[in-house]
Amino acid sequence: MNPSMLLSSLLFLLASLMLFSVVLELRRRARQVVQRLDGKTPADNRLSQWLQALGSSRVGQQSVSLDNETQTLLNALGWRTARKRAIFAACQVGVPVLALALSALVQGLFFPQVANPWIVPAFALGIGYLLPKRLLAAAAHQRQKKLAIEISTFIPLLRILFESGMAVEQSLRVLSNEGKQLLPILTHELRLVLTRVDSGLELAEELNVASRLLAVDEFTDTCVILQQLIHQGGGAMKSLLALKLLLDDRRLTRLQEYISKMSAKMSVVMMLFLFPALLIVLAGPGLTALARAFAS
């Protein structure tokens, strides 16, 4: 890649960025006008507004809507509002473009004489496209694990409230208001469910929808028992106790599996680091004596 082509590509990239910034600025001003007409205060973070504008564009929405797994991961992570989905869509579009531009710039400046100049930008484009989704999957999996751990604490608290004479909705409201420090993720989801219930929807159906969105087996089983308690009015206390014992058994099994894997990993570490040192200590004097005997 000669310097003239590199300079022209950089000028084209700079012009494209300037044009894109002008378009985003116009959209931002239009959005601020709409927010003022609605009586809302516009946000002051310009970067967040640019990301939201990029994610709300047709390209950003198509990059998210074409993949069903991305929708499932966003629901599991709790990103269900249009703003958060637009921010992820902006990252899904912007990270590959940024990786492509950086790789082309670095290659043009430091490695201008490569035989195939398109290989590195192609790899950078692919990695930039896959990286946001992989990070999203890791964050969603981590949130699901935390929610599964919180269920083990949620069920005894729920049984205590039921034994005190509260109904299902009253118990969920008490936990959503008083358990923010103890159950941060679960109380957030319960507040969303109760908000939709306050708007006139049915509690059992909203619990079913929340269990499908979160895709956590422990929460799904709990919602099934709560739906049974809502429809039948009783007889679910033994089911909650059985579910608590089942979750404890699952957790114990996972811990035993983790410990067994950890022992195998520690065996490998011992073989790599401890065994050579032990061999030197035990066999070192004998090898030294043999070397002196052969030398004499």
Automatic annotation (TrEMBL):
It comes from the Bacteria. InterPro entries: T2SS_GspF_dom (IPR018076). Its main location: membrane. Residues 154-282 form the Type II secretion system protein GspF domain. Keywords: Cell membrane, Membrane, Transmembrane, Transmembrane helix. The keyword Cell membrane applies. GO terms for cellular component: plasma membrane. It is a multi-pass membrane protein. Pfam families: T2SSF (PF00482). The chain crosses the membrane at residues 6-26, 86-106, 118-136, 268-295. The keyword 4Fe-4S does not apply. It is found in: Cell membrane. This is Type II secretion system F family protein.
